[in-house]
Specification:
alpha/beta; Rossmann fold; single chain; seven-stranded mixed beta sheet; six-stranded parallel beta sheet; 362 residues
């Protein structure tokens, strides 16, 4: 197929890296890349020349059957030039209903990479998990930069330094990576998660698990948290609050699929936290786990730094681009057959990701 990769408007990442371009080429695809798309990830146009034609945006649209971007392009750019083309992106960061109307109006076959099911067969295509892994790591590194203390315990002739206390809320992909990174840096780590299966994973990384009984569980939630009862939330709030008040760093990652993130760190708890503490809220894009969080900003409240950023993986632009690019390659290898894509609503991956269902592949 003729595949075009669009330059991101406000993102350091790129949807195709030279390493993955080689794999696409071996699979027999013709590749087009918008000029300068890889610059902010330190991939120059010349790095792609063996496998890709580097072209202008207008030539990209003209020559490509299938178009890919990490973030959806602006609505006002979607027009008849896209008609009958296939478009892949992550629509989680936008109002999907608005985009869907425009996509269908212009007869664009669209796949949402942000809702790939979290099943065994789809693991290699899961952009949310690959990016969350990096976000969990970067959250701890950013917290270490902002914290006016060291993470590890150190004994010197001038006195001893106690290890930092880190609390991780949510032990999914991002949370587990945050736990592992904080432990490697020498912190004392505790973690909370309503899923009983997370307990063993937390303990295996050397962290303490904050036990709260009575959680609602749902194996079909694909690794996300699920809505909990009022009674459980009260018990969780009480137990976790004790830990938060003593924490130097809090990494919050709890998100509910298709809903607003639960408030796990109310203002009343922030008021009791130690001056100099740091909260990194990775759930900020869907409302945040901290009541004080502002998405895309760092605020300072009572000498406590609160960072709201669900896209920390973009700060590791080379690795995050490469993982995203591999996810896309694996997804396309799965849905392309004989150099084309056909409707396959019986397949879970296809049916869940294909969002413009009113438009049938011809």
């Amino acid at each position: 197929m003729k595949i075009g990769f669009i330059k991101e408007a406000n993102d350091t990442r790129v949807s195709l890296t030279p390493e993955v371009a080689k794999k696409f080429k071996k699979s027999g695809h013709d590749l087009f890349l918008e000029s300068g798309a890889g610059d902010l990830s330190n991939f120059k146009n010349s790095d792609y020349k063996e496998y890709v034609k580097v072209v202008s945006y207008s030539d990209l649209l003209k020559n490509s059957e299938l178009l890919i971007s990490i973030n959806p392009i602006e609505l006002n750019k979607i027009n008849s030039n896209f008609s009958k083309k296939i478009y892949l992106s992550n629509f989680n960061s936008v109002n999907k209903d608005n985009y869907l109307l425009v996509l269908e109006k212009n007869n664009i076959y669209s796949f949402d990479l942000g809702i790939i099911p979290r099943t065994t067969i789809a693991q290699s295509m899961d952009i949310l998990s690959s990016q969350a892994n990096l976000s969990g790591y970067k959250a701890v590194i950013k917290a270490a930069e902002l914290l006016p203390r060291m993470f590890p315990m150190i004994i010197t002739a001038a006195g001893s330094i106690k290890p930092a206390k880190v609390v991780v809320l949510g032990a999914g992909v991002a949370g587990l990576q945050a736990i592992a990174t904080a432990k490697r840096l020498g912190a004392i780590v505790e973690a909370s998660d309503p899923r009983s299966a997370a307990r063993e994973e937390v303990l295996s990384l050397g962290a303490r698990f904050i036990e709260v009984e009575g959680a609602v569980e749902d194996s079909s939630a694909g690794g996300y948290a699920v809505k909990q009862t009022k009674e459980y939330l009260e018990r969780q709030k009480k137990e976790v609050s004790k830990k938060l008040e003593l924490a130097d760093v809090v990494i919050s990652t709890a998100q509910v699929l298709g809903g607003k993130s639960p408030i796990l760190i109310p203002k009343t708890v922030v008021d009791k936290m130690k001056p100099g503490s740091v909260i990194i809220d990775l759930a900020s894009a869907s409302g945040g786990n901290c009541e004080m969080t502002q998405d895309g900003k760092m605020i300072i409240y009572n000498d406590i730094k609160i960072v709201g950023n669900s896209y920390l993986s973009a700060e590791l632009s080379q690795d995050s681009s490469n993982l995203f690019s591999n996810n896309v390659y694996n997804f396309l290898e799965y849905i392309i057959n004989d150099n084309k894509i056909v409707d396959n609503y019986e397949d879970e991956i296809f049916s869940q990701c294909y969002i413009t269902k009113k438009i049938k592949f011809s």
